[in-house]
Amino acid sequence: PLALAKDGGEKATVLVFLGTDCPLGNLYLPKLKELSRAAEAQGVRLWGINSNVSETAEAVAAHAKEYQLAFPVLRDPEAQVADRLQVN
Questions:
Q1: Exposure string for 23-49, b = 16+ CB within 10 A, e = fewer
Q2: pLDDT per residue as tens digits for the range 27-42
Q3: pTM for this structure?
Q4: Residue 84 CA from chain centroid, whole number
Q5: Which of 7, 20, 68, 79 could potentially form a cystine with 51 if both were Cys, beta carbons 3.0 to 4.6 Å apart?
Q6: What angle do CA 73, 28, 62 make, to 5 degrees?
């Protein structure tokens, strides 16, 4: 398992839950890219989390590549992160 806690001197970690087929989420991806760059300059790390059981690792990676995301996107196929944080 990957620890999302601060490990490199970050001031904070921001989690953004994404889906490859979410039109609203995809609409906001350019802004999230901007925000991730600005946040990184301030010592804040942004992570994308995909908790959709139907989306494969390949689909998630292709989606991140297509949108040229400047932050890592992790799969949460069993929704453990989403459930623990009570994301709806």
A1: eebeeebeebbebbeebeeeeebbbbb
A2: 999 999 999 999 989 9
A3: 0.82
A4: 16
A5: 79
A6: 40
